[in-house]
Amino acid sequence: MLRTIGRIAVLGAAMTMCAKGQDLAAVQVPGAHIQRTMSLLANSTPGKRQRVRILFYGQSITAQGWWKFVADDLRARYPDADLDIQNKAIGGFTAPALINTAEFDLYPFSPDLLVFHVYGGGQMDRWEDIIRRTRERTAAEILVWTHHWIGRESDLPECERIREIAVKYNCGLVDIMPQWQALLAERAIEPKALLRDTIHLNDEGMQILADMIKPFFVHNPDLLTEESRNLVADLPAASPAVRRLPDGSLEVSFVGNRLDAVAAPGTGTGELATLTVDGKPPAELDGAFVLTKPSSAPHTWFPAVSIIGHQTPQVAETWTAEFLECSPDAKQFRYRVTGSVTGPDGEGNETDTFVSNSGRVVIPGGGNWSRVPWSLTYTKKPMPETFKVTWQVVPQFAETLQFPAAENPARERSVTLIQGIANGPHTARLAPLPGAALELAGFRAYRPPRPATE
Of all residues in the chain, what percent carry a pLDDT higher than 70? Predict the structure, then answer.
């Protein structure tokens, strides 16, 4: 009996390993889990230039110039697509830091495709949290890759975790590490031959990384998954989800956290309608506002502060934290916070959590401000005589529907009505302004594939 149980256990373990191997192989098939994006690219024509937003995000390796080779390749292969390709990577920010700036850079951008790589900084759970939050807050497809080999053994378990995360969250995966090791062995060269320092790629290294990633961008409709298919739903004006009310309003039922309106041919550029969502003005909905990334610490590219929250409803405005007193090493300071709408809103310091008088600004102290003194040590420069940090609160909604001018008739004219609200069922209503003809081609709803967990 014991032998039978042992054999069953061994067989079960072998089947689990086989299943995991199959899952890992599946996410590495060129084009895996990015077919919605690739379909938009491949199906663009001179008469129908489909908009595709791609975001490269991570730290300094992602920021290096190789990504432009990939972007140029996509533009050359899909000249009819209306491509918006951006890189918001922050050099020096490993996963524990990048998870904070993703609140400003990643989720509000709402890309069709996220191309992502970052080092774990000893906290690969933070790496996973960035991917999980992307799946919970956006309808983006995701492509990730493992580290290139620099001779650092600690990179190997991080690469294994990246593989596991790719499988768990249905991300496309380019497994760079074994390819890089094989190339080094084949050419009998050391890792430093492709580096400009101990980790960053030299020109040849950048070309190699681009050449390893570019082949993943292939259109293969057979790889389109149900998950990718359901990320975005087109809701034509004639669909059952869209209703014309007796007063001329349009009401649309959708599931997701973002809704775009799509102009009909001939729609003008004037103001057409006011928006409510679930019976409320959009400004009253949780998630309707987002912060821009705070300005940089002295002499560097790092944001001076990485976490800013709020306790009371926000309004669109620009905020300033002006330093009033500061020690020479910037390890002790006092600042005043002022909003362009709210006005003076209290004073804080580097140690304590600051809650503004209005409750519209909450800034944790301690490590949240660490980049300010670090910047002086890193650059060997003194603290400026005057210093301030600025950021904006910007709406992720359109109170009034107004389409942009048609720069190119082949490009779709659309407006994001609302974004960043709870992922679930909603009803949006557009009430026409006096004299406005509210004729739309339809709507487009974006639905993140995973429910929120926080």
Answer: 96
Closest to 251 (Cα-Cα) out of 12, 31, 429: 429
Global pTM reads 0.94
pLDDT tens per residue across span 138-157: 999 999 999 999 999 999 99
* Per-residue exposure over 315-348, b if at least 16 CB sit within 10 Å of its own CB, e if not: eebebebebeebeeebeebebebbbeebeebeeb
Q: Is the Cβ–Cβ distance between 426 and 253 less than 8 Å? A: yes
**Could you tell me the two tokens for 74?**
């996509």
* Domain ranges, ordered by start, for the chain: 2-227, 230-288+397-446, 289-395
CA–CA separation, 145 vs 138, rounded Å?
20
CA-closest candidate to residue 443, choices 232, 231, 261, 245: 261
Phi, psi of 326 (to 5 degrees): -155, 135
How far is Cα 175 from Cα 184, in angstroms, rounded to an integer?
Answer: 15
CB atoms within 10 A of CB 89: 24
In angstroms, the CA 291 to CA 377 distance is 28
Kindly calculate the radius of gyration of the chain based on its CA atoms and give it in whole angstroms: 25
The full length of the chain comes to 454
d(CA 280, CA 284): 7
Domain 2-227, CATH homologous superfamily name and number:
SGNH hydrolase (3.40.50.1110)
> Which residue spans within 123-189 are E strands per DSSP?
141-145, 172-174
- CA dist 74 → 41, 42, 191, 210, 213 (Å): 9, 10, 29, 12, 12
Angle between helices 176-187 and 155-168 (to 10 degrees): 140
DSSP letters, 204-256, are HHHHHHHHHHGGG----GGG--HHHHTSEEEEETTSTTEEE-TTS-EEEEEEE
Beta strand extents in 264-327 (DSSP E only)? 273-277, 289-291, 317-326
**What kind of architecture, by CATH, is found in domain 230-288+397-446?**
Sandwich (2.60)
User: What integer pLDDT is reported at residue 18 of this predicted model?
Assistant: 45
pLDDT at 248 over 50: yes
CB 317 within 8 A of CB 110: no
Bridge partners (DSSP) listed for residue 244:
250
Report the half-sphere exposure of 11 (CA within 13 A, side-chain side): 6
Distance separating alpha carbons of residues 428 and 280, to the nearest angstrom: 9
Classify residue 171 by its DSSP letter: -
What average pLDDT does the structure give for the chain?
94
Q: Spell out the residues 6+ positions from residue 442 whose beta carbon is closer than 8 angstroms to its own.
A: 234, 235, 236, 237, 238, 239, 242, 262
In contact, 288 and 424? CB cutoff 8 Å? no
Question: Residue 428 and residue 398: Cα distance in Å, rounded?
Answer: 12
